[in-house]
């Protein structure tokens, strides 16, 4: 990059959290701080038609309202398709947040595969 030029924020991956599709696109792995920049990056790089039915949240250290909204959108997509969003082992802090907001009823928490 030339001096004085900046990288386009809309396409730059956030440095503090990450979202990655694994297992052939069937699992979304969240890690670190899931905030509006991380969610924006996800929405710009993954088409809604490709959104998975499972989310691995074991590595989440913080989730903003934008992250919660993303979970709601993922859950709604699964419900429209006759399924249910599965969230793999959300950490205690995230489970408490989901319970306090009532979002724990929107999807199902599941244990990590052995």
From TrEMBL:
Name the Gene3D superfamilies for this protein: STAS domain
Specify the protein name.
Anti-anti-sigma factor
SUPFAM superfamilies, alphabetized: SpoIIaa-like
Q: Which Pfam families match?
A: STAS_2
Q: Where is the STAS domain?
A: 55-114
In terms of CDD domains, this protein maps to: STAS_anti-anti-sigma_factors (cd07043)
Top-level taxon of origin: Bacteria
InterPro entries (alphabetical): MlaB-like_STAS, STAS_dom, STAS_dom_sf
Q: Where is this region: Disordered?
A: 1-20
Q: Organism source for this protein?
A: Klenkia marina
């Amino acid at each position: 990059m030339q001096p004085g030029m900046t990288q386009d924020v809309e396409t730059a991956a956030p440095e503090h959290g990450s979202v990655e599709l694994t297992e052939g696109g069937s699992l979304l792995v969240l890690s670190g701080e899931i905030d509006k920049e991380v969610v924006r990056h996800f929405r710009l790089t993954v088409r809604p038609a490709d959104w998975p039915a499972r989310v691995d949240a074991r590595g989440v250290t913080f989730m903003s309202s934008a992250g919660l909204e993303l979970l709601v959108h993922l859950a709604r997509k699964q419900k429209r398709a006759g399924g249910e969003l599965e969230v793999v082992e959300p950490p205690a802090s995230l489970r408490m947040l989901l319970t306090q907001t009532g979002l724990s009823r929107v999807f199902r928490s599941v244990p990590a595969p052995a």
